[in-house]
């Protein structure tokens, strides 16, 4: 039988820090606010199941745990409190999620590996048509960046893209000592809830391209960064082009995208 201590030692190389504080795990599970009874709760990187257990208590058979590590999958399938068929091996970034989202809306939860946290958020944005909510733990700086308001030094690409489609809320900070092994940084738990209304007929790929071009040279004005990104800025309000990207709220990027793409 694979023990929890063996699991901890085996996953250090995956950038995973195991949560060992049950109270914090309970708080994360309780932060999921969806009342959609058809929603599937997808946990990414369950490890030894600290968060999986309270999620199962709340949502029962609707919880699906996805871990890239085979030994974590074997360990969780040995636990009596979870259905073996609810634990799958796979990389969230590569996992074919089409079958899952075809079954209904999706809620994503997890103590996310720090080394792929931004990629997880971008993947979740790709699922925005089905993704109702995301609740989970990131490196504190990443969580703060997602929730940052325009004008902040931490406001950036993820801030804009996520806040166009989701309400982002920083919930609480988690110290290193509640993990095994303890990370060298603090963690932050955030919640993303899909907005009731989105900008209509907005091409997400165009918004993403424009936002990346703007922040790739964030110290420059939009006039210079957008030109460098290959955008034709003729006809755009000259006053907006004098600004730097962190000065624009998310909906201003939506408006700029419409103007530059003729939407």
What does the model show?
There is one protein chain. By secondary structure, the protein is an alpha/beta fold. The chain folds into 2 domains: 4-194, Rossmann fold (3-Layer(aba) Sandwich); 204-261, Helicase, Ruva Protein, domain 3, CATH 1.10.8. Helix content is 38%, strand content 19%. The strands form 2 sheets. The protein has a 7-stranded mixed sheet with strand order 4-3-2-5-6-9-7, sandwiched between helices. Strands 1-8 form a two-stranded antiparallel sheet. Helix 6 packs parallel to helix 8, helix 8 crosses helix 12 (250-261) and helix 9 (204-216) packs across helix 12 (250-261). The longest helix is centred in the C-terminal third of the chain and has 13 residues, at 204-216.
What is shown here, in short?
This protein is of the alpha/beta class. It contains 12 helices and 9 strands.
CATH fold annotation of the largest domain: Rossmann fold
Whole-number tally of structural domains: 2
- The average pLDDT score comes to 91
Which residues form runs of ≥5 with pLDDT under 50? 6-14
Pattern of helices and strands: HEHEHEHEHEHEHHEEEHHHH
Shape: elongated
How many strand elements? 9
Strand order of the largest sheet: 4-3-2-5-6-9-7
Q: Give the CATH architecture of the largest domain.
A: 3-Layer(aba) Sandwich
How is the main sheet built?
A: 7 strands, mixed
Q: CATH superfamily of the largest domain, please?
A: Vaccinia Virus protein VP39
CATH secondary-structure class of the largest domain: Alpha Beta
Q: Mind telling me the C-alpha Rg?
A: 20 Å
Distance between the termini: 58 Å
Task: Give the number of helices.
Answer: 12
Percent of residues in beta strands? 15-25%
DSSP helix fraction: 25-40%
Q: Structural class of the helix and strand makeup?
A: alpha/beta
